[in-house]
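Q:
Just now I want nothing more than another pair of eyes on a protein record. Here is the record:
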Amino acid sequence: MDKTYHISSYCQIKNSSILVDGKLLFSSPILEFQPFIKSAAQHLNTKYSKFYKMDNLSKLAFLAADILLKNAELDANSEHNIAIVLSNKASSLDTDRTYQTSINDPDNFFPSPSVFVYTLPNICIGEISIKHQLHSENCFFIFDSFNADHLWINAQSLLKLQKAEMVLCGWVDFDDKNYEAFLYLVEENGIIAHSPNEIKRLYKT
């Protein structure tokens, strides 16, 4: 008999608010992303010294993942067989623009290595993996819009092939002033069926 998998928890960050499993965890009147995400990280006691040096996309993905993985009560001193499958529309465009600005002026040519390192969208996966000692498969896909079917296929495959015990999936997009994160954990335990329809329903909630 095939194993069945479930969504054990999910997190959404948008419009200056953070929701976990549909319940409000944090909100702020601050509309601008950077002061909002800083205040959210401080309020949630996010302990990771590199957080404030990350680009915007990584901060967004990291905070959503950190909330879910801390709630999963993982052993902070152990490696974890948790895969990561993320996606978005803008790739690392927000950081790419910042980097391009630093090299536009031939008289003030100063490319920044600290910015350049974030000019790939999957760098946020590395930050999450380092903090939570995740040692499993990972990938980052670019779609025109949220693609629940593709996320479902990848998570199901990783779990059924025993490439991971749990999969952190979702959508994390940052472009100019627009940002949105929707991340969820898939494993054997949980009360929400892991299906494309349920993923779409949660995303639209």
In short: The first helix runs from residue 33 to 43. The beta strands are 6-14, 17-20, 23-27, 82-88, 138-142, 166-175, 178-187, 192-193. The chain has seven helices and eight strands.
